[in-house]
Design a protein that fits this description.
By secondary structure, the protein is α/β, with parallel strands linked by helices. Helix content is 51%, strand content 9%. The chain has one domain (65-253): Rossmann fold (3-Layer(aba) Sandwich). It is globular, with a radius of gyration of 19 Å. The structure holds adenosine-5'-triphosphate (ATP). The site of adenosine-5'-triphosphate has 19 residues, from helix 2, helix 4 and helix 9. Adenosine-5'-triphosphate is lined by residues 48-49, 51-52, 55, 91, 95, 172, 174-175, 191-194, 197-199, 210-211. Residues 9-22 have a biased composition (Basic and acidic residues).
Length: 267
């Protein structure tokens, strides 16, 4: 008679055991790889993923309390907005398609596809992928608006989407576009694992966390705050200090809680 432990639970999508110490990181890689195969994610997106993974490793692959506070401020901004828009690129679509749809529902936001390397094929593949995950309407395909100060392809937006937005969530955005959107007076919420990157430094709300954790976390806060009076939302927005959030993430990277990384060594 043996006293056998139950076999580890396996994720059906990736066939990875859920109790693997690096489960989340391996699942992320699996989704990005699939994204490339489906024509959703560019090969440059693979490089961005690698850079993100390195920062996540340094952050202990956990949401810092300061990143959670940023997620709450992000939710308050989205709920207060007249016209919030969630911008989606190839990595975001591959990693969190259903979670973006949930966040759009929780905050009554539009979803717009916006690509650094824009091709009509990839735009279409991403829009289809988001619809397969429950999106009703996906913007970005009309491309009848322009962000001034950027070259032609990267400047394209929908006039009634990002063009008309007052608050924009731009995860994993490149620094130039983040800067140009900021100059247009839009409030930017940036999700990025690198607190030294230009985009989070430009943002009203930098969420220094993995997109895989950050988007569901913003949704959770938005649901909790759904019935909050405007005054409370405004207090959350005003009480958020972006500089302090960036500093805290840099401190966490420098000082690192090496204990947390035990058992999470690279494959
Ligand atoms: P900048 O121009 O702002 O300096 P960059 O050149 O660093 O930006 P990219 O090379 O496009 O920008 O890299 C994308 C960014 O996305 C990186 O900062 C990386 O840390 C971040 N990133 C990658 N994967 C994730 C993820 N899963 N969650 C959050 N951020 C991520």
């Amino acid at each position: 008679m043996t006293d056998e432990a139950a076999p580890p639970e396996v994720d059906h999508e990736s066939e990875l055991p859920r109790d693997h110490p690096r489960y989340q990181s391996l699942l992320t890689r699996h989704r990005i790889e699939e994204g490339v195969e489906k024509g959703i994610t560019s090969t440059q997106g693979l490089i961005a993923e690698g850079r993100g993974e390195a920062f996540d490793y340094l952050l202990g692959e956990e949401t810092l309390p300061s990143a959670d506070a940023a997620a709450r401020a992000a939710a308050a901004h989205l709920l207060l907005a007249e016209h919030p828009v969630l911008s989606v690129n190839g990595n975001v679509a591959a990693l969190v398609p259903a979670e973006i749809v949930d966040l759009a529902e929780a905050t009554d936001a539009d979803i717009e596809v916006n690509l650094f390397n824009r091709t009509e094929e990839r735009m279409g593949a991403i829009a289809d992928h988001l619809r397969e995950h429950g999106a009703d309407e996906v913007k970005g395909l009309a491309a009848d608006g322009r962000i001034p100060g950027l070259n032609h392809e990267r400047a394209k937006v929908d006039a009634d989407g990002i063009g008309a937005a007052d608050v924009v969530l731009v995860p994993l955005e490149d620094g130039d576009r983040a800067e140009s959107l900021g100059e247009l007076g839009k409030t930017e919420i940036v999700v990025d694992l690198n607190p030294m990157s230009r985009s989070p430094r430009m943002a009203a709300v930098p969420v220094i966390d993995n997109i895989i954790r950050a988007v569901p976390n913003i949704t959770r806060h938005a649901r909790e705050l759904a019935d909050a009076p405007r005054g409370e939302l405004e207090r959350i927005v005003e009480g958020f200090d972006s500089e302090a959030a960036l500093r805290d993430a840099e401190r966490a990277i420098r000082e690192g809680d090496l204990g947390k990384r035990d058992g999470k060594d690279q494959e």
